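Researcher: Re-running this chain for the archive, since the previous output was lost when a drive failed. Same request as before.
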Amino acid sequence: MAKKYTSIKWEITFFIVALLVVVIGSLSYFVLDSQKNSLTTEVKLRGLSIARNLSNNVADFILTDDELASARLLSDAMNNKGVRYAEVVGADNKVKAHNDLGVIGTVYAEPGDSEEIEAAPYRIIMIHDKTAGKIMDFSAPVIAKGKLKLGTVHVGMSYSIVEDVLNKAFINVLVISIIAIALGIFAAFFLGASIAKPINVLAKGARIIGTGNLGNKIVVKSKNELGALASIFNMMSTDLKNAQEMMVKQQRMERELEVAKEIQLSLIPKDIAVIEGFEVATYYSPAKEVSGDYYDVMPLGHDKFGFVVADVSGKGVPAALVMTMARSIIHSESDEDLESHITLQNLNRILFPDLREGMFITVFYGILDAASGVVDMASAGHNDTYVCRNGMIESHNPKGFPIGADPGPTFDKVVKNEKFTLGKREVLVAFTDGITEAMDPEKNEYGDARFMDVIKASSGQSAAEIADAIVKDVEKFVKNAEQSDDISLLVIKRK
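Model: Regenerated structure tokens:
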């Protein structure tokens, strides 16, 4: 089941609106609280000022019991905005003067539901009256002649003058907040949509690319990071397409190389002809998928057999193609009645026109007369051929230079053959330089000396065991180093 995702547009809108609500709410609270404190302080100052003025002016009238003058002062005090009452309470706790003449002479009673805001000498209490609401009561002592306390002035101011202003301010702040939040919602929605649109384009394009359509281009007009991301996506899809095409080509090439390897291996003889009185063993290992090395054993008739070990310059497909051509020519030109160097002359004459400049082939070609043990061999610039007699190594390498180095006249003059007899229990070893030039991880070469030592040490064994001893010693020497060249090995031992 596909996972459900929320829209980034709504997430941005929600976040911005929530942030606006928190910021506006916090600012509104601090503004209203500051204004409340400021207004309350102003009311306190006004109330205390009125109370002190009354206490200073009414003292003489209280002392002379001039109730009319006292009432006039209290009446003047009532003209101040917000004043609900003004009275003078004598030392005997009776009302000496009041803006309401009917209250004069009554016993003063401390309001029950009240809380003290400030203490003496100028006391302020907050009275919670269910009918009149909150009233701030300001009291100041009435002192005559600077010494005699005659009573206390009480001035009550309605707290509604603060609450009314605060209510108006709250309504203004609320309206401004609603407008700001509404604008914030619109801006957040617009911003979220502007961000979400290119992201949706990116997501859609990514899904299309994910289906394998690497040619799809994502078009995002934004010049910001989203536009850059779209460009990266397009570059990535182009790179992926190129990589995919390269991978297909590489797979095709690998398959073609695999087919070429199979074809080449089919040309390398697997079942060596049985030669009466002789043992023949071979080994072949390409450095790459296909090789420029080649060996062969060919029955020529009348107990004669042709032996070939060849090495084409270079490695890989070009060398393998040249090797294939050389094999075909050798098979067609080899004859029991031709000496070995004549066959190499024919090979060079036929193959030279088809070889590109700089490409050549070194060849060992020998003809074994199984009846007599005589070996007729020639070398087209190939490395030495070793013969082990009585624990000693002989090197045989008649004059000659590689196939393809000369079109014919000079080659024909230089190339010579050599004949010798392979005695009983004697060994002939023909090979390519992939053995002697094999390198260990430190780039040291295996070398001819070590190679000859292995041949001498194993010469008493069968041809197959000699070949196996050589291969194992080379592997032991190179350890885990990569094979640097093709290897071909031919071992012939007379019983």
